[in-house]
Each structure stands twice: as C-alpha cells, then as structure tokens.
Amino acid sequence: MKLSVQGVSFSYRSEDVVNDVSFEAGEGQIIGILGPNGSGKTTLLKCINRVLSPHKGTVLLDGVDYHERTRKQIARQIGVVPQSANSSFPFTALDIVMMGRNPELERFEREKESDLQIVSNAMEMTNTAFLASRPMDQLSGGERQRVIIARALAQRPKILLLDEPTLHLDVNHQMEILDLISRLAREERMLVIIVTHDLSLAARYCDRIIMLRKGCIVSAGDVTHALTKENMAKVFSIDATIYYDERIGTHNVAVIGAIRERTE
Q: Taking Cα atoms as reference points, which of 105, 116, 154, 150 lies closest to residue 131?
C-alpha cells in the first residue's frame, strides 16, 4: 500500500500547527517523524489517520482520497498506537486486543472463530498471549504497550501509526518494542510511521526521516541525509553528530550538548 501526503496543513484557530507537509511512503518502510515538542508531529499523525481533517491538502491511500472512504474502511487499513491508552474499565489484555476486530464487525455482531484466530495470532506475534487474562492495570508499561500494538495488529492493517511508542518506557522495553516494530515492517510488509523525538532510536530503526520544526519540514530523506549536524542544530538546538556504529550494524547519534539560542 502506498501513502501519499500532499500539501497537508492544519491550524488550531489562527495558529498554524502543520504547514504544507508532503511526502510519500510504501510498504515495508519505517518512517520516523522527528521534532521537538510543539513541532506538529502528533497533529500530522492525526491528519494521516483522519482524526483531524486537513484545512489544506489531502491524504491518499493507493491513490484514493481519504474522503472517499468511511472511517471503518480506514480502520481496516490503518492501525494506531497512541501515546497512552489508559482505561478506567477493568479490561483484560484479551478484551483490549479483541477491540481491534471492531472495524470488521457489524453492529451487535459477535466475534467469529476467524476473529478469535486473528486475535490469537496478534498476541503470539507480540508475545502477549500469556497476558490474556490479566487486567490491563496490572501490567507493566512495556507489557501494556505490546498489548496495544497487538490490538492494532488485530485490525490486520497495512499501515501502522505509532505516537511516541517508547515514551515513559525503560530502555530495555524501548528496545523490545522497536525490535518488534522493525520485525513487523520487514516480515509483514507493513508501512510503519513513528512519531518520536529520540534521535538515537530513529537513527537505528528508521529507513527514512522527516524532520519538523514549527509545523514545516526542515529535511526529509534517508537517515544520513536528514540527521545532519546542521539539521539537528536547527530543529533540536543541539550539537550532535551521526555515525555508523559497527557494534550494532547501523547508525547512531552522539549528542555533544545543547546550543544556547539567541534571544535578540
């Protein structure tokens, strides 16, 4: 499946949050959307998922405009992993993952045996099957995040959108989640789009980077093209450099320090 974002802009009242953003991506790729807080990353993701309607521009799936598809049709093609998924109800992990089948069910229709098998497969893929009967509020942060990813996979999407998937997780859980996401992109041929501000993780796992500052694209391209010393200084106000780390067989980012912004 091909995703095409064409000139998307969005404003809250009179404030431009996303401004004329365009890019294309295809199956099997991991795209990182990077930027500091307030750069428009999450808003852009919501425009891609049709939670928000762009004030300008459009989003195409395989050449078809979003507005020609229903929300249920979009949910069958796009899975979303939000920043947080807390619930005040005592749902089990299995209950949560089963919700991923809702776009395929008609009103009041019960899950079929095929739905149960899809959910089982999603939980096996994310190593959450052993958590099936556990209440969500009794799981660790990493376990909850894997369950939410399993819910998205139960939709059997072609595109997976993740908003800060490693936020508030310990380092070992961060690596666990991103190793899983990388495997899904390669083996299931999913298009994965990750919103993050973690430069090192983006350099390690992403195929392409889109860097945002104040809602505009500063740079877009492969990791070494986008994460230059100049771009990281412009977007994040840091002195940093990208290098190839032979120990992990991919790129990494070394942050030297902050750059003091001029006030005049």
A: 150
DSSP class of 2: -
Residues 181 and 218 in one domain: yes
Q: What is the reported pTM?
A: 0.91
Three-point CA angle 156, 162, 164, nearest 5°: 160
Report whether 217 contacts 21 (CB < 8 A).
yes
Q: Please check whether residue 217 is in contact with residue 54, taking contact to mean a CB–CB distance below 8 angstroms.
A: no
- Can you give the residue range of the structural domain that contains 112? 91-155
What percentage of the chain carries pLDDT values higher than 70?
96
Does some domain include residue 59? yes
Nearest to 139 by CA among 150, 149, 128: 128
What is the distance between the alpha carbons of residues 37 and 34, in angstroms, rounded to a whole number? 10
User: DSSP string covering 197-236, please?
Assistant: --HHHHHHH-SEEEEEETTEEEEEEEHHHHS-HHHHHHHH
